[in-house]
Here is the input.
Amino acid sequence: MKKRFWRSKWFIIILAIIALLVALISVVLRTSFIEREDAVLEYFSQQEGMPDAFAQLDQLTLPGSVVLCWWDYGRAVREWSSREVIEAYPSRDIWHTVGSSRDPWHNFAAQLFGKWGSSERIHDLAKIFLLPEEQALPIMKRYNVSYALVFTPEDLQKFHWIAEIAGYNSSEYLTLTDDVYQPTMLGSQATLLRLLFDDTLNPQWFTKLFDNGRGKIYSVDYP
Here is the structure.
């Protein structure tokens, strides 16, 4: 009886230690994950021209309006500009397009603690950016989009992934030669590239409200 009692006691102690370790690891992983996620906002805050663009978005747009932007600017638009976006978090199926997903520990933490966005909304975002304006506008209208926010060179660097998510070959739309991006004939019709290269491609259904060389803000002029 005495031996069984001590065996039972040690079993309970070991279980308690394991539970404590799991809880500690969970806290560490969660804290680390939150810090990594907040580092994205910190990066935006330190990039020349980006904080001003988010501040101007707050000043130049109507409260409660929806802003068209790629999902990874979504939290900044919500928290800094007090505006809504189509999506502010990655969906599970496009998580591989995020650089931090290639960090095994961060990837594991994301599966446990991450907030996941809508796959449908992110695919709609990608389609809006790759389609010609006339085809993109009906999708935008479905989400009540009133404004658009784009950044250079960030959105050009992401174009490959955006095109892939939309189901297109990015090289048919955008070329890179000697560190210079150039839209192709087909790319000159893509909504995102028309917004980024507005000085030459002249978007038809967007009016530019702000441009500081890094960020551009447009109002949407529905026909």
Remarks:
- The chain has ten helices and seven strands.
